[in-house]
Every structure is written in structure tokens, then in C-alpha cells.
UniProtKB/TrEMBL annotation, chain A:
Keyword terms of this UniProt record: Cytochrome c-type biogenesis, Disulfide bond, Membrane, Redox-active center, Transmembrane, Transmembrane helix
GO CC terms of this entry: outer membrane-bounded periplasmic space
Signal sequence region: none
Residue intervals passing through the bilayer: 7-28
Location within or outside the cell: Cell envelope
Domain named Thioredoxin: residues: 44-184
PANTHER family listed in its UniProt record: THIOL:DISULFIDE INTERCHANGE PROTEIN DSBE
UniProt-listed InterPro entries: AhpC/TSA, Periplasmic_diS_OxRdtase_DsbE, Thioredoxin-like_sf, Thioredoxin_domain, Thioredoxin_ResA/DsbE_sf
Organism: Gluconobacter oxydans
Molecular-function GO term, any one: disulfide oxidoreductase activity
Protein name, entry field: Cytochrome C biogenesis protein
GO biological process: cytochrome complex assembly
CDD domains assigned: TlpA_like_DsbE
Broad class of the protein's primary localization: other
Length: 184, 659, 167
């Protein structure tokens, strides 16, 4: 066997290991930013129009909203499902308030007593431009929500362009949402 | 004396010693300075002492209920039995990393003590490589998972341990498994040292083989013990789930088995040198990366440690240095290694080559199946999972030729074999295997179990008949047989035992493929039949244990009206941890396991029903028994004089002169 | 036996084994890969009954009931993704984290009548999974101090604050 061929053959393992290593590094860095989650379930509604709904508002927080109103928006809207009984939702509130300085967030209270939800939203200042109550979780089912909190980025015209199933924070906003806003 | 600060200091000291152990002998070897190289064993032993002290400190913290140490507070409690206070030390991430490095240091110590016959330069380099790997993991321990971290204020009592982990089987599983994983660091270090030196010869093969065999024995035991644990503790009736954690131990086992065999060819015939060096590197690399993938959370597992991607980045960097560095060295230096031995395809060497190709093909299939889901998700964004059906369909057909070759291989002579003569030795075994085929058709259903079962009987028969032929049964006087038995090398006995063990395991797997189970919901006094036995729920009663509440069933099993046994499966409710565990009840006669699990209670009063899971598992104990026999076979061949003494003095002298 | 012929033999053996391994892998991949499907995808294009899939979605509130088939207890519930719901039958003991209104993954096959028979049911958040934000919040509210051990498991999160009101 000549020397070049040997050289090529013995280099195969390191090339293979290198490819795997780069893949692992990508996975790890994506896991830290939340883009890659080996346990995630894909939401089938991404890329589709929002389902139709009409929901009442929360006491003291104005009227609810309907799919038509959401579709009529000229700016992208972040729709956030939350509940006062959900600890991750409590945890994401400061992040949502930070994000709400950049774009409107519409909140939907999932399976929650309206007065509890209203108190929860107002406790440290509401991040939501509008809030509606999904008392029995029917709307959440239509959206394909698998648990709260979950968030959807809705483009003008009512198409879902992004879905996140973790609590939001400014990092996720910068990494996931802002690039998509730029593309609109 | 044994406080956490002392332990922390000892760990840092060990890390510095390991760095010196890495740098000084390598530098000395390149300058041909015998004094610097000669320091390596002393450094290795002192590193071992420092690390052992550090580990002892952690144990003393746990035994002494020092809850100001976070690791103890999180995993121990005053009420925990002493045994589990000690074993709980390695039942968590930080402690297990410390145990891992301790075993690595112990490998270095063992090379220092038992490797006196090695040329100084080679031993210095081997110890240097071990020191380098050790230093990396100790830094990982110190920087990202410090087991001695203090908490303030200290809690009054600890959190206790996951009740699932309070089990003697699991307590000793990690040390054995880790010894298997880490043990392959020694062949790895030998391979890297040989690449630096640029020379691999028969003597090298002889030196490296005992270490590979020893690590292989521990890994075999570790895998068998883990499988047994999931069989009797998890209560799912399964023994192997093709879970990423299990695959992470199976992959190095497959390449390690290939290494143990290919090193024979290096030792006897100076062939397959580059390949053996690559296998030694690959086996340790797989051991390391398996742990990494599971700890970092890339692979999902049922037996999960806490996942932390940040920790993963550190380990990935460490792996890049260790694996990338050794493979780069391999790509650079391996082309200059040349083989000398010539052999015909039909020969002992030929069969060992075939064994290696098949084992590595199986390994490639397992690696592909394990890595496919995360890569598919990364590249295509599709979430898929690869489970038992895939692995069964893809690996079992490849084990069939492996089993067939196992029977023939040991009967073949070196260099060139005459087929007719070889087969004349195997007539008896082939006859027994033919009976085995009939037996399998009678007892088993499904084409793969029948084929595997028949081949397993063939392996056992061929291995046994090979030993019997060599000790001259049938054509020598009893006295001659005794003489031959004494003179037959222990490594031949060991090989035959290991092959028989593999056959027993495969038979156990075939038996388990015929397992029957039923999930029933019955009232007290009702009877259900499963596989010819009648299972009757006699009674269910509650009792209070030391730190749990339990529901215990009395489950009578009758065969043809005769009472076989009464099983007492339990369901325990640990109130402090708000966790329930199921205590499986197993009755075994070493042919069939009767396995009962109790589930939920439904309804009240007369309408109370109980969910029960009943299993009938034929030949289940054989799977682990076979693993044990394999490991005993390995240990037996380790006791071979030739393995212990190492290379003939002449070769050693020659190496000394060259160095 | 020259060096060349020996090499030829080794190459042939390698090709044969690696080739059959690759063929087996591909064949097993094509028939044994388990895809995740949502109920609407199952309804739109039902996979054949011999092909296992992973069904992911939310357990519809109020849909869980137990039926007894010849002494075997069967859990029946509906899994939905919003557009469609699939009836799931599962024999065995449901995981601790299984709750209505939360997501599950069920491994099994779609039957001819459109129902789904699960051989394994997994709740989405296993007990070791905790997002960092949750951990921080638990710490902040004093529900959990990481210095004293593992976080409480996911099933108890919503009982730790105000009781879930709806459902």
C-alpha cells in the first residue's frame, strides 16, 4: 500500500470525529440558546393562519379580542399563553415586560379564574397590550398549546411564523424573534 | 483532618501532580533523560494518594452527616443507612466525576506497580498520557462540578437520596462500570505512547492485552449488572431498552471486545498493528463521549443525571483535546507502522479479522442508531426516535455470522488451516448443534430466536469440544489428560470460558424473546392464568416501613394445582421525597423467572380491584450468568503466566537498548 | 498467499460486512423509524396499523376514563393538537406526571378504526427537567433552595402557588 493512500485512510477517523464534534458543538450551543431541544414537540401550526376565536377580557383590563382583530394588525404581534397558577409564567414576566418595549404582546389567560389572572397580570405592571381569557382552554387547544407558557409570533394578516414552548426572555427575543421581525 | 477543605485541597494538589505527571516524563522522554522519565511512577502514585485522600474526605463528610457540604446536603440524610451514605457519594454527578478520576489515577498507580517489566521510556510515556487525561478531568471537577462546595447556612438534615437508588445492585454498579470505561484509558495511553515512539511490535501487543482484558472484564460485569438492575428494580419486565445510556456502554464494549481479539494478532503475528492502535484509541474515545453525551443532555435517557449544557461545553472541549489530539497523532504517525505477518484467510488470524470486522459493523450500526435522532433534528428539524425494533432488526442478523465464526475460530491453527482437518475436530460440536436446532424449533418460535439459539448451542459445544480435544480427552490416558490440563495455557481456558459465557447470554436472550406477560385488574381471591400457571391474588395488606408506606400483595402461583411459590410484590410510597417505587417480586428456578408487580388500587369496599402485572420470563437469569462467565473467562486468562510476566526478557532488553 | 491476495480478502470481507450492515440499517430505518405525528396529521394521513408512531399532543380535559376489557384495565383518553383529536387506549399504569390539559407523548400504532393503541405513554416534562427560569423563580419565592437539594418535581409546581382554578 503506498504512503499517500495510507495517509488518507488514517486521516479518516479524525475527519469523522471532527464532523461529529462540530455537530455536538452546534447542538450544545443551540441548546443553550433554546433553539435546539431534544425533548421538544413540534407545533404543527407554525406557518399556518391563526384559528378563529373570540374571547372575553379580564376584569379591569379592557375587552378581549378575536381572531379578526389580530389579523387586522399592521405590526407583528407576540401572542403569549399564561396562567397565574404556572410558576414558569411568573418567571417569564420580567422578560415579557422587557420585550413589550419593542413589540406588542397580547396575552391569553389559560384555564384561569378571571380575577386571579387579572391580579397576576397587574401585580408588577402588565406587559400585555391586550389580554383575553381562555377560561376553559378551548382556544389553547385550537392553537396547539401543549402547556403554559407558550408563545406565538403572528405576522400581519394572521399567519403564525414562530412558536416557543419555553419561558421567554430578552435573549430568546434577540436570537429568535427579532431576526424574524426583520424578515417581514 | 478529613474535612471538605482538606478534600478540596487534595483534589487541587492531585490536579497539579497530574499536570506534572503529564509534562515531565514526556519532556524527559524526548530528551532521553532517564531521571526525568523515572519520576513518572512516583508522580502517579502520589497523585493516586492525593486523590484517594480527597475521595476519603468526601466519604467522611457523608458518613459524618456534614450537611454544610452541598453535595451531602443534597444527596444524604441522617436517617439513611450507613452503606447508602457511602455509596450515595457516587450516586450524583459531582461525586461520580470524582470517582471517575480516582479510578483513572488508580489505573496510573497500577501501571506504575505492575508495569516494572516495561521499558522505562514506554512506561513514562504511558503514565504521562494517563496523567494528562486525569488532569483534564480533575480540572473539570474543580471548575464546574466541585463536590466540596459549602452551603451557608447549613441545613439541619439532608434531602435524602432518590429511593430508586437505594439499592445494593445500583450502589456497586457505577464503580464497576466506571472501572470498565476508565480501564480502557490504559490501552489508549499505550496506543498514544506507541504512536509517539513510532513503533508497535509483538511485545507491545503482549503488554497492552492484559490491560484491555481487565477493563473488558469490568465493563462486561458493569453492563450485566446494569441490565440486571433495570430488570428487577424498574419493574418493567425488560432488561435492555436500547436507551442511550445503555448504548453508551455497549459501544465501547463492542470495540473493546474487538481490541482484545486484535491485540492477539499483534502479539502472535505482528499483524493488524495500525488497526489495533486505532481500536485502542476508539474504545476509550467512545467511553468518554458516551458519558459526555448523556451528561450534557444531548441524548435523552431514562436514567438521567441532571443535564447541564454549560457543563457539556467544558467536556466537549476536553474531548476535543483528548480524542482530537490522539486521532491527529494517529493520522500523522500511523502510516509509518508496517505489518509483517502474512496469513491465509482461512486461519486463526483470518477468523480474528472477521471477528473484528463484524464487531465493528455492529458497533457502527449502534452508533448510527444512537446518533441519528439528534443529528436528524439538527439538520432536518424532524423529531424522530430510534428504538428497540430498529436495533433488533439491524444488529441481530450481524451477530449470527459472529456466533458461527466464534465456534470455528478457536479450532483454526495460526497462519494457514486445512479446512478438512479443522472440520474433523468440529464434528461432535456440529452434532450437538444439530440437536440444538431441533430443541430450538421445539421450544422457541420466530426465525431469529431459533437461529440465535441454535448458534449459541453451537458456540458452547465448539468451545467445550476444543478444550476437550486439546487436553486429549478420548485419546490419552487419564494421567496424560491431567498433565495436559495443567499445561494448557490459562488463556486458552479463559477464551473457551468467555465464549461459553457469550453462548449462555445469547441463549438467555433467546429465552427472553419468548417471555409472556399480562396486565390484569382483579379482586382479592381471583385467579388468572399465564403460560400454564395459575396466579391467584390471595391478599393485599398495608404496612409502614422505616421511611415509607407500603402496599404488599400475596400472590400465589400454582402449576397443575401444585403451589410453586407465593410472591410478595410491593408498592412503596416515600413521603419525604413524594415518590413511589415498585418492589418487584421474582421467583426463579434458573430456568424460568416468575415476576410480579403490583400497580394501583381502584375502588373501595367489596369492589376494590388491584392492577397487577405478571411476567413469565424463560431463561432470564442466563443473560447475566453468561456475562459473569465471560468476565470470569477474562479474569482466568489474566492469570496466565505469559500475561503477567509480559514480554520475554530478550525483547525487553532490545527495547531498552533502542530506547 | 501474497500480501496482495490477503489484502483482497480483507477488503472483500470488509465490504461484505459493512455493506450488509448498511443494508440492514437502511432497511430497519425505513421500517422501524418512529416519527412524531400530531393528531391532525394522523387524521389526514393515517399510517398503516403495523407502523409504530409517536403521537404528541395535549390530553383533552375531561376525556380520561378507564374501561375494563376482559379483566384488563385500559386507560382511554383523547389527545388533541387543536385541529383533531385521537382516542388513545393504553393498557398499564400511567406515568405520575400524566395530567389532563398537559401534553403527552404516546408510542403505539393507529388502528383501522382510527383509534390509537399505545404501548408506552410519556409525560412531557420528566422530573429531572426544569428550565432555568423556573429554578430561579422557585429560588426567589423561597419555595426551593438549591443548596439543600434537588428541585421539587414538575408535578408539584402548580400546587405550590394558588391552586389551579380552571379545568
Amino acid at each position: 500500500m503506498n504512503a499517500t493512500r495510507r495517509g488518507i485512510l488514517t486521516a479518516v477517523p479524525i475527519i469523522g470525529a471532527g464532523v461529529l464534534g462540530v455537530g455536538f458543538w452546534r447542538m450544545l450551543s443551540d441548546m443553550r440558546s433554546g433553539a435546539f431541544d431534544p425533548r421538544a414537540i413540534k407545533n404543527p401550526n407554525v406557518g399556518k393562519p391563526i384559528p378563529s376565536f373570540a374571547m372575553p377580557g379580564l376584569p379591569g383590563l379592557g375587552d378581549g379580542f378575536t381572531d379578526a382583530e389580530l389579523k387586522a394588525q399592521h405590526r407583528p404581534v407576540l401572542v403569549n399563553f399564561f396562567a397565574s397558577w404556572c410558576i414558569p409564567c411568573v418567571a417569564e414576566m420580567p422578560g415579557l415586560r422587557a420585550i413589550s418595549r419593542n413589540m406588542p404582546i397580547w396575552g391569553i389567560a389559560y384555564e384561569d379564574k378571571p380575577e386571579n389572572a387579572a391580579g397576576f397580570v397587574q401585580r408588577d405592571g402588565s406587559p400585555y397590550a391586550r389580554v383575553a381569557s381562555d377560561r376553559h382552554g378551548r382556544v389553547a387547544i385550537d392553537w396547539g398549546v401543549t402547556g403554559v407558557p407558550e408563545s406565538f409570533l403572528v405576522a400581519p394578516g394572521g399567519r403564525i411564523i414562530w412558536h416557543g414552548s419555553a419561558a421567554l426572555d430578552p435573549q430568546i427575543y434577540e436570537a429568535e424573534i427579532r431576526p424574524r421581525l426583520a424578515g417581514l | 483532618m478529613f474535612g471538605p477543605e482538606q478534600g478540596h485541597f487534595a483534589l487541587a494538589l492531585a490536579c497539579v501532580l497530574a499536570l506534572v505527571q503529564f509534562a515531565v516524563p514526556l519532556w524527559g522522554a524526548s530528551r532521553r533523560d532517564a531521571r526525568l522519565v523515572g519520576l513518572a511512577p512516583y508522580l502517579a502514585v502520589s497523585q493516586l494518594i492525593a486523590l484517594g485522600y480527597s475521595f476519603l474526605c468526601l466519604i467522611m463528610c457523608a458518613v459524618g452527616d456534614d450537611f454544610s457540604v452541598q453535595n451531602v446536603a443534597a444527596n444524604s440524610a441522617v436517617s439513611k443507612p450507613l452503606l447508602y451514605k457511602i455509596t450515595g457519594v457516587w450516586g450524583n454527578h459531582e461525586g461520580s466525576v470524582l470517582l471517575w478520576t480516582l479510578i483513572l489515577a488508580a489505573c496510573g498507580g497500577a501501571v506504575s506497580l505492575f508495569g516494572r517489566n516495561l521499558p522505562d521510556i514506554l512506561r513514562g510515556r504511558v503514565l504521562a498520557i494517563l496523567g494528562g487525561v486525569s488532569a483534564g478531568f480533575q480540572m473539570f471537577c474543580l471548575l464546574t462540578s466541585d463536590p466540596f462546595e459549602r452551603v451557608f447556612p447549613a441545613p439541619m438534615d439532608g434531602q435524602g437520596m432518590n429511593p430508586l437508588l437505594q439499592d445494593p445492585g445500583l450502589a456497586f454498579h457505577p464503580p464497576i462500570l466506571y472501572t470498565g470505561y476508565v480501564g480502557f484509558a490504559v490501552p489508549f495511553a499505550f496506543a498514544v505512547a506507541a504512536l509517539i515512539e513510532g513503533r508497535v511490535d509483538a511485545a507491545w501487543g503482549r503488554w497492552v492485552r492484559p490491560w484491555a482484558v481487565a477493563a473488558w472484564c469490568f465493563l462486561t460485569c458493569g453492563i450485566a449488572l446494569g441490565s440486571w438492575w433495570s430488570y428487577y428494580v424498574l419493574g418493567w419486565g425488560g432488561y435492555w431498552f436500547w436507551d442511550p445510556v445503555e448504548n453508551a456502554s455497549l459501544i465501547p464494549w463492542l470495540t473493546g471486545t474487538a481490541l482484545v481479539h486484535s491485540a492477539i494478532v499483534v502479539e502472535k503475528r505482528e499483524g493488524l498493528k495500525i488497526w489495533t492502535v486505532l481500536l485502542a484509541i476508539a474504545t476509550f474515545s467512545f467511553s468518554l463521549s458516551g458519558t459526555f453525551l448523556v451528561r450534557s443532555g444531548i441524548l435523552n435517557s431514562v436514567h438521567a443525571f441532571a443535564n447541564d449544557p454549560a457543563r457539556g461545553v467544558f467536556i466537549l472541549a476536553l474531548l476535543a483535546i483528548v480524542i482530537g489530539g490522539s486521532l491527529a497523532l494517529f493520522a500523522w504517525r500511523a502510516p509509518s507502522l508496517t505489518s509483517t505477518g502474512l496469513f491465509s484467510p482461512i486461519s486463526r488470524e483470518g477468523s480474528l479479522v472477521l471477528n473484528n470486522i463484524l464487531l465493528c459493523s455492529i458497533c457502527a450500526v449502534v452508533v448510527t442508531g444512537t446518533m441519528y435522532p439528534p443529528f436528524m433534528q439538527l439538520l432536518a428539524g424532524r423529531t424522530i426516535s430510534v428504538g428497540k425494533p430498529f436495533f433488533d432488526a439491524a444488529t441481530i442478523p450481524l451477530t449470527l455470522p459472529l456466533l458461527l465464526a466464534m465456534g470455528v475460530g478457536t479450532a483454526l491453527p495460526w497462519k494457514r488451516a486445512q479446512l478438512a482437518r479443522t472440520f474433523s475436530h468440529l464434528y461432535a460440536a456440529a452434532g450437538i448443534a444439530a440437536i440444538g436446532v431441533v430443541l430450538c424449533f421445539w421450544r422457541l418460535s420466530g426465525i431469529m430466536p431459533i437461529a440465535c439459539g441454535a448458534l449459541a448451542i453451537w458456540v458452547i459445544a465448539a468451545s467445550a469440544s476444543d478444550v476437550l480435544r486439546r487436553i486429549g480427552i478420548g485419546h490419552t490416558s487419564p494421567r496424560g489428560v491431567w498433565e495436559r490440563m495443567k499445561n494448557l495455557p490459562r488463556s486458552s481456558w479463559g477464551a473457551a470460558l468467555a465464549h461459553i459465557g457469550a453462548g449462555i447470554t445469547v441463549l438467555g436472550l433467546c429465552g427472553m424473546s419468548q417471555a409472556q406477560h399480562a396486565i390484569v385488574e382483579i379482586h382479592i381471591g381471583e385467579t388468572r392464568s399465564l403460560g400454564g400457571d395459575a396466579w391467584t391474588l390471595l391478599d393485599v395488606h398495608d404496612y409502614i416501613g422505616p421511611n415509607y408506606k407500603a402496599m404488599q400483595a400475596d400472590l400465589a402461583i400454582r402449576h397443575n394445582g401444585k403451589l410453586v411459590t407465593i410472591l410478595h410484590p410491593e408498592k412503596r410510597d416515600f413521603t419525604t421525597q413524594s415518590q413511589t417505587t415498585t418492589e418487584v417480586a421474582i421467583h426463579t428456578n434458573f430456568i424460568t423467572d416468575l415476576y410480579g408487580v403490583i400497580g394501583d388500587r381502584h375502588g373501595t369496599g367489596k369492589d376494590t380491584t388491584y392492577v397487577l402485572r405478571l411476567h413469565r420470563n424463560p431463561l432470564a437469569p442466563w443473560m447475566w450468568l453468561g456475562g459473569l462467565v465471560m468476565a470470569i473467562g477474562g479474569a482466568f486468562s489474566l492469570s496466565d503466566r505469559r500475561m503477567r510476566i509480559g514480554a520475554p526478557k530478550r525483547a525487553a532488553a532490545r527495547n531498552m537498548a533502542r530506547a | 498467499m501474497t500480501r496482495k491476495t490477503r489484502r483482497l480478502w480483507i477488503v472483500i470481507a470488509c465490504l461484505a460486512c459493512v455493506g450488509s450492515a448498511a443494508a440492514l440499517t437502511l432497511r430497519a430505518f425505513s421500517s422501524n423509524i418512529v416519527f412524531f405525528m400530531a393528531p391532525s396529521q394522523v387524521k389526514a394521513s393515517p399510517p398503516s396499523p403495523d407502523r409504530p408512531i409517536r403521537l404528541g399532543g395535549m390530553v383533552m380535559a375531561g376525556s380520561l376514563h378507564r374501561i375494563n376489557e376482559n379483566g384488563t384495565p385500559v386507560n382511554a383518553f383523547q389527545v388533541t393538537d387543536g385541529q383533531a383529536a385521537v382516542e388513545v387506549h393504553y393498557t398499564g399504569i400511567l406515568p405520575d406526571l400524566f395530567r389532563e390539559g398537559q401534553s403527552v407523548v404516546a408510542l403505539g400504532t393507529v388502528q383501522k378504526d382510527g383509534g390509537f393503541t399505545a404501548s408506552e405513554v410519556l409525560a412531557k416534562h420528566d422530573e429531572t427537567y426544569m428550565p432555568k427560569e423556573v429554578a430561579d423563580e422557585l429560588k426567589r419565592t423561597g419555595k426551593w433552595d438549591p443548596r439543600f437539594g434537588k428541585a421539587p418535581d414538575a408535578s408539584s409546581w402548580d400546587t405550590m402557588t394558588a391552586k389551579k382554578a380552571g379545568g
